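<instruction>
Derive structure tokens from the sequence
<data>
Labelled lines for chain and fold:
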Amino acid sequence: MSTPERAWPTTDAHDELTLLWELLRFQRHTALGKATGTTLAEAIETPLATSPLMSILGVIKHLTAVERHWLTRVAGGADLPSLWTEDPDSDWRITPTDTPTTVLNAYRAEWALAETAMAPLHPDDQALGDPTRTTRWTLNHVIQETARHVGHLDILRELADGSTGE
């Protein structure tokens, strides 16, 4: 279920920013691994009665919107449209064009946008789109948000087809 690019972060973390990016990349690839190989029916299934929009694709779409907002727009200051709308659940909703392939490709594409937007920044730098935040804060926020949702993906994947593991 894991992807070949998934690698544990460096254990001799002397460079904080490198470590933060490695931690985020690890979580990103873990999320991909949880979603990869699902059928469309499995990927859009919402088996949790108390979370009627939470599906594997919904989680990945949400993580894509999180990266666009916090890393690309807030930290990196990029002038790209938000993926969030007035509907607070828009990023969780599955559209007729959403498939495992399109949603996972959009998530991967967002990584490149985020990393490009944040390339010139250092941990203590103020976010270019919100000077009340730092690069350190935004990266840590997205790492924790991604890790939390990887836990959701763990449960959703196990409910979908019984797959467990990293």
